[in-house]
What does this fold into?
Amino acid sequence: MFMFFCLNCIMSITSNKPHDEFFKAALGRKELAIAYLQAFLPEEIVQKLKLSELKPANDSYITAKLRKVFSDLVYTCPFGDEGQEILITFLLEHKSQPVKYPHIQLLQYELEIWELQVKQKEPVKPVLPIIFYHGKKKWEKKPFEEYFIPLDESLRKYIPGFEYHLTDLSDFSDEEISMLKTGFLANALLILKHAWDKEYFQKNAVLVFSRIDIYDDDPEVKNFVQAMFVYFFKITEFSVDQTMEIMEHLSKPVKKVAKSTYDRFVEMGLKEGLEKGMKEGMEKGMEKGMEKGMEKGMEKGMEKGMEKGMEKGMEKGDRRRSRIAVHNLHEKGFLVEEIAEALELSVEEVEKFLEEEKYSEE
It folds into this structure.
C-alpha cells in the first residue's frame, strides 16, 4: 500500500526545536485548538468565544529577544455579543523550568502586537495570552504586583494589572488528559507532558498512542500521526531494539504508520548526520590542510628562500668579483674590449662596472 510521508513534518521536528514544532503541529490544527480551549479555559470565557469562527492568524509576534523564552501560535476569534475580534495566543515556554518574570515577557509580547496594529492604523485588539508549560519544575503563578513586594498601597495603581491563562501539564493526571474528548489532543498532551521522561514511554506507550484512528483516505490525519511519532522518536532517542519493542504493543494500523515513519526518520537522520559529518569533515580537512599547507609552505619557503638567497648571494659575490677584476685590468692598461674578452663579459657590462666604485657594497 502507498504510504504518504509528510517530509516537512519529519524535517522540521528533527530540527533543533522539536518541542516548538510539535506544539505548532498539534495546536495548529483548528479542531485541536478548539478542543483545548473548551477543555482548559474558564467557562465564562468559552461561552463568549465564537469558536466556529476561530481562524489562524498566520502571524508571529515573537521578537529575537522573546524567542529565547516563547514560541507562539496565534488565532483570531469573535468574542461576546458584539463579536469583537480578539487574539488568542498560545505561547509554549521553551525550557524545562519556568521563566522568572512571565508578566514582563508577556507585556513585551503584547506591546509588539499593539504597536503593529497602531502602525497599520488598525484598532487595538484584546489579547488572551495562554502559556503552555510542560517543564519538570512546577510553575508557581502569582500576580504581577507581587514582583514588587514590599509595595506601598499608594503605588499599586501604577503597576500594570493583567493576567495570563496557564496550562501546566503537571497539574493534570494522565487519566484526566486521557478523558479529553478529542483523541489527538489527549495523545499530543501526554507526549508533551512526559517529553523529559524516557522511562515513562517505555512503560506507557499503549496509553500514549491509544484512541488513534487512521483512515487511508485522510492524509491530514496520517501527517499528524507521523509528526507525533517523529517527535516521539526525537525526544526519546531509543535504540532500534527498544523502539521496535514499544511498537509491538501498538494496534496494527498504528504500528504500520509508526514503523514506516521510523524508517523514514532514520533515513533522514542518517542523511542529516552524513551531511553534517561531511561538512564538519570538510571544515576540519580545510583547517588541517591550511595548517599543514602553512607548515609545508613555511618549510618549503624557507628551503626555497635559502636556496634563492644562496643563489642570489653567489650571484652578488660573482658580480662583485667581476667588478674588481675589471677595475684591476683597466688599471694595468688593458682596453675595454680586451677586458671583456678575458673575463667573458660584454663590452656594456665592462663599461658599467667601470662606472661603479671598485669596492662598493650592493
